[in-house]
Amino acid sequence: MTRTVLITDHVFGGVxxxxxxxxxxxxxxxxxxxxxxxxxxxxxDDVGGILVCYATIGARLIEAVARxxxxxxxxxxxxxxxxxxxxxxxxxxxxxxxxxxxxxxxxDHTLALLLAASRNVVDAAVDVRSGGWSIPKDxxxxxxxxRLALIGVGRIGRKVxxxxxxxxxxVLGYDPYVEDLGLPGLRRVETLxxxxxxxxxVSLHAPMTSENRHLIGDAAIGLxxxxxxxxxxxxxxxxxxxxxxxxxDAGRIGALAVDVxxxxxxxxxxxxxxxxxxxxxxxxxxxxxxxxxxxQRRAVDEVVRALTGTPPRCPVNPxxxxxxxxP
Length: 327
Fold this sequence. Notes:
Rossmann fold, seven-stranded parallel β-sheet, 2 domains, elongated, 11 helices
């Protein structure tokens, strides 16, 4: 019987890359018509692997696909917070991800948000398009010499630091899980308070965990003394968005520039959508034509590897590798 690989959801123009790669090993691709749990469970009987983007892969679905011999859950992306990794591990199912496919794109987008917000680029362009010709001077200051605090100094955080140093920023890095920041000019600080207290820009680049949800909320915002620009291109849950809007209104935050929010898409009636000091893009920082192609190829390659008994490139739970066997 032909093995099936279930793709729960995706944001691509098509899945020809995945279909072709799986056909080479005699597997067929099945696209789920919806991402609710009942629908996904109903498709679980003969699934040898799962490709997932944003859908929730919970314990009930994992139990169902495990009964059918599923070997791998491959996440399109850097994080796996939508996958119950513990349940997958208990079921002997390998979880993989693509941790480094869009590093330059996210770093570039972070700097694009920083520059656009700092220079009032959007307001100026909208004014010109509507027939005006005035300079939006409010809050525009020279970037050289400003202090940028990076919250999280992994692969992307360091790339942002490289770019920011070229603009003349003083760059601080706070990351309790990274001992060597590995970049001349990037100064380590030991506490979140030390990072944000005197920062002109605060940029989030940490992974999403249960411990750091709303890492930047009312308490952290209350420590900010320089009305910083707050940027988030990492995970929506790192920033308490409602607290950030309150910070804008209270003058604790000078501006907000985000590409990710805890609830996506952001509700139409959310005040941040129309806030004059909020710049929001639709979770696009990962995207370039090259990065999208790379993501699809690397995610399906992990499935092919698992189904042919080849070691994975990026396992999340390597302790279950002994369960991956050649057919």
